[in-house]
Amino acid sequence: MNQEHLLKLVCMEMPYGKYKGRLLADLPGHYLGWFAREGFPRGELGSLLALMYELDHNALRPLLDPLRKDQQNLRR
């Protein structure tokens, strides 16, 4: 896990499906769990979803909070 991957979680939107347009960091745990059971997509998206699943499953979502604040400050 590196900071660039964590930063992408708070910047990148889900490109398809029920939660299309939602930030990867904001995807609900049950949706991430579904991917974990059924298989993550190939490529970068799948890697990021797997990372987000691990953060969610291990109750580590708060690690993303400082990155969210940084992104909000950059948008101003």
Explain what the structure shows.
- The chain has helices at 3-11, 29-38, 43-57, 65-75.
- It has 76 residues and is mainly α.
- It has one domain.
- The longest helix has 15 residues, at 43-57.
- The chain is globular and about 35 Å long.
In short:
This is DUF3820 family protein. By secondary structure, the protein is mostly helical.
Radius of gyration: 12 Å
Q: Can you tell me the residue ranges where pLDDT is under 50 for at least 5 consecutive residues?
A: none
Number of helices: 4
Specify the overall morphology: globular
- Fraction of residues in H or I helices: 55-70%
Distance between the termini: 28 Å
Question: Care to count the β-strands?
Answer: 0
**What amount of the residues lies in strands?**
under 5%
What pattern of helices and strands is seen along the backbone?
A: HHHH
Mean pLDDT: 93
Domain count, please report it: 1
Derived structural class: mainly alpha
Query: Largest sheet, described in full?
Result: none
